[in-house]
Amino acid sequence: MDQAPSPLTGIHSVKLNLRAWLLKAGGIKRIHIVGCARSGTTMLHYSMLAYANTILIDEEVSAVSAPSFKESGSLCLKNLLRRSPVHLVTKRDYGWFHTGRLQPLVDCILRERIGIINIVRDPRAVLTSQSASVETRPYYVEPGRWMASITAADELFARLEGYPQKLTVRYEDLVEDPETATGTIATRFSLNLRPHVESIGKLRDNLERLAAVDRFSQHLGAIRNFDPSTIGRWRKDPRKLEYLETLRAESEIGPELQRFMGRYDYADPPGG
Predict the structure, then answer these.
(1) Which residues contact 85 (CB under 8 A, 6 or more apart)?
(2) Cys bridge to 234: 86, 121, 128, 253, which one at CB 3.0-4.6 A?
(3) What is the b/e burial string over 129-165, where b = at least 16 CB atoms within 10 angstroms of the residue's CB?
(4) Which among 47, 44, 19, 49 is positioned nearest to 33, based on CA atoms?
(5) Are 169 and 117 in contact (CB under 8 A)?
(6) The pTM is what?
(7) Residue 44 CB contacts under 8 Å (≥ 6 apart), including other chains
């Protein structure tokens, strides 16, 4: 059942209520993306520009604190005369999954009727993803961070039971069948594609059409259209296979790995 948000108190509550009023007055709806690092959160965030009347905050933010009161006022003034709503799309910040931050996020989602998308990806790909920006460990996402992220997402959706504006999508489904994913997201959040845009899967093409490739490439690296060849690359690296087997058999996250893979249909078939 859809629950009510916790009551707000103090000066902070005044700003949050005013922000909500400004965004509503300006016809600005919100969509917030969560998920573990290396699961495709940035890719999905930028691909949402394929939909008409969408704008982004191009950084990782908390849905509770962003947009700021000042930013909300500016957005309201810019959009007061628009005939259709504008969708502001944001992406979770680094520590969004910390336990004490979940209830404020739930309250914010319910109070401002924010759409929420959780993107998941095969944990074997997530846990063996590498980054040139991290030299102190071989893989970008540590097992504990993966565990905390997927646990937080489960808890978030459990607390939002009955709330209709939420959706879980798999990275693999986005990449392999972007047309279906495009329709699913559009239906759930009442979106329409921009003119001459085929799907969210044409990421580079869409950003080029909006003259936004250079602006966004600093966070996503080499921007390209969705590429199914990114799926399963870890299978070709013996070191990664050995590491994953160790995690499965010997680490504390082993049981959760198995549960998660079964739940989201990542378990390999016999002989796979």
Answers:
(1) 27, 28, 29, 53
(2) 128
(3) beeeeeeeeebbbebebbbbbbebbeebbebbeebeb
(4) 44
(5) yes
(6) 0.91
(7) 33, 117, 119, 169, 174, 200
